[in-house]
Amino acid sequence: MRRLLNLIRNENMKMFRQMSTYIMLGLLIVIVIGFGFISKNTAQPAATSADWKAQLTQQNTDMQASLTQIQTAGVAVEQSTASIDKAMKTNTYRIEHDLPPEQGTTLWGFVTQLAGAISLVSLFTIIIAAGIVAGEFNSGTIKLLLIRPLKRWKVLLSKYLAVILFALDALIILFVASFLVGGIFYSFGGVSQPYLAYTNGNVTEINMLWHIFTTYGYACVNLLMMVTFAFMISTVFRNNTLAVGISLFLMFTGNMLVTLLSKYTWVKYVLFANIDLTVYTDGIPVVKGMTLNFSLLVLAAYFIVFNIISWLVFTKRDVAA
After folding, report:
1. Neighbours of 236 (CB within 10 A)
2. What domain range is 16 assigned to?
3. What is the pLDDT of residues 186-213, one digit of tens each?
4. Structural domain count of the chain
5. 131 part of a folded domain
6. Which long-range contacts link 277-284 to residues 24+ away (Cβ below 8 Å)?
7. Is the full-model pTM beyond 0.85?
8. Within a domain: 56
9. Is 53 within the bounds of a domain?
């Protein structure tokens, strides 16, 4: 265990000796601050909320009219109907429980918006994962590492855990920076504001901080799977450019491909049909009948396969090749 910890520490030291690591983390902070300035200067003034109930009632009337215009059947129609139904029920809940919609930008609104920057964290982590193995093969330093009395699987595991630790560091930096910048620009008031969640056709109130952590957690599913995939490609092909290119291509086009193939039932076994777990709490799955347990099993299967391939190739390959 001590050897493994020393290996992880060694990988972290090598990672943070590189200026690119600090540039990526610094860029993350700069983006949060820059987004804060932009949103603050472009935000619309808070409108009067005196007649917000009448506005929501009118919105519901308009959305009900839109529902009656839907004539054809299909997945796209089902998704549109579910989205409209969610908005109508949320509006009704606000009216019945005297919860006016957010006016202007708030601290939690800013933090929620910046949760989208987790995709940037994924990008940076994929770059790290793609180079942490391939880079050592390309430079030849892998030979110096493997001539030591260390088991290869421990070397590989230390590199993978070092990548995961980098992702965790970046996520913490993102959350802390967005919280502080959001509080500075929009005040730290309203931290007890609830979030209205839509689950199984019902609207419920949940703690906003828990909602933020849940949002981060769901986004980390995509991060973990794509980073593991990039790590596998890097290990198998020893080419960081290939690992980054394929991983980013799939990360940004995977959902589109699944949507195009959603009419086929076999698409539920595709990684990207299961990678967005928010559909089980705030939407509908790609294929009717899919469950959270099913998606977790599929994700676990892909995760295990990616790691087994990495382990087999790394432990069996001749480093002199």
Report:
1. 18
2. 2-35+73-316
3. 877 767 777 887 776 788 888 888 888 9
4. 1
5. yes
6. 277/218, 277/221, 278/218, 281/197, 281/198, 281/199, 282/86, 282/197, 282/198, 282/199, 283/79, 283/82, 283/83, 283/86, 284/78, 284/79, 284/82
7. no
8. no
9. no
